Amino acid sequence: IPIVKYHRAPEPLWHEWDRKALKQGLRHTVYAVNGDQYTGQWLNNLKHGKGTQLWKSTGAIYSGDWKCGKRDGYGSFRIPDPVTKDYKVVYAGWWRNDQKCGYGAAFYPDGECYEGEWSSGLRSGWGRMYHQDSCIYEGQWLEDKPNGQGMLRLSNENRYEGGWKDGKKHGLGKYFYLDKGQMFEGLWAADIPKCGVLMDFGRDEAPAPPQYPIPKLELADPDGVLAEAQAMFDDRQN
């Protein structure tokens, strides 16, 4: 029986060209049709590793980590100043799936600044916001708004400490009027104090205290009032 030998057909030349064109591992500079430019590492034709992207239409530049074609890891995003054309940092921090995620600092055109945690491109977690009017908020955030527990310090050093919801004072809180030497402690809803107690606080050190101190208020039967309130609360829970 004759032995038949099968010879493998030669590989098409374009297969070899594809292998040579596949951007893998090493640094490459690639220009898009719209003028965008990327210089950095690749994996399977995707931006992966360290690299720098330039968007021609806006002049924006991202330098940092990439994963499977998206910004992922640590990196900075910069844009040119419309007047001086000098580059300024807009965000420096951590990214995931092409969005701000983790700890980072953002710098806004009006001079405001936020440093803290992010999730899906929004301020979420713990963070500190420096506002244009010199107010500073420090505390918890959710979906770009103060939410949870936090403190807002005004430019005159007055401050609020307590609960927040959707960017507004909400829940139990204390407002310190240090310029007058007073403090309000109570319950807030949508930025409005609903009930509470106003008392003197650091009156002797205040720069502009009221003419007369606030008289003390005392309940005739504080234990009875507390018990009644507790009973009402228990009934509502049941």
Question: Which helices and strands occur, and which strands form pairs?
Answer:
Elements: H1 13-21, E1 28-31, E2 37-43, E3 46-54, E4 61-67, E5 70-80, E6 87-96, E7 99-107, E8 113-119, E9 122-130, E10 136-142, E11 145-153, E12 159-165, E13 168-177, E14 182-189, E15 192-200, H2 222-237
Antiparallel strand pairs: 1-2, 2-3, 3-4, 4-5, 5-6, 6-7, 7-8, 8-9, 9-10, 10-11, 11-12, 12-13, 13-14, 14-15
Task: Write a structural description.
Keywords: Cytoplasmic vesicle, Repeat. It comes from Upupa epops (Eurasian hoopoe). This is MORN repeat-containing protein 3. It is found in: Cytoplasmic vesicle, Secretory vesicle, Acrosome. This protein is mainly β. It has two domains: 87 residues, Histone H3 K4-specific methyltransferase SET7/9 N-terminal domain (Single Sheet), CATH 2.20.110; 127 residues, Histone H3 K4-specific methyltransferase SET7/9 N-terminal domain (Single Sheet), CATH 2.20.110.10. It is built from two helices and 15 strands. The chain has a 15-stranded antiparallel beta sheet, with no helix packed on it. A hairpin with a 4-residue loop joins strand 13 and strand 14. The mean pLDDT is 86.
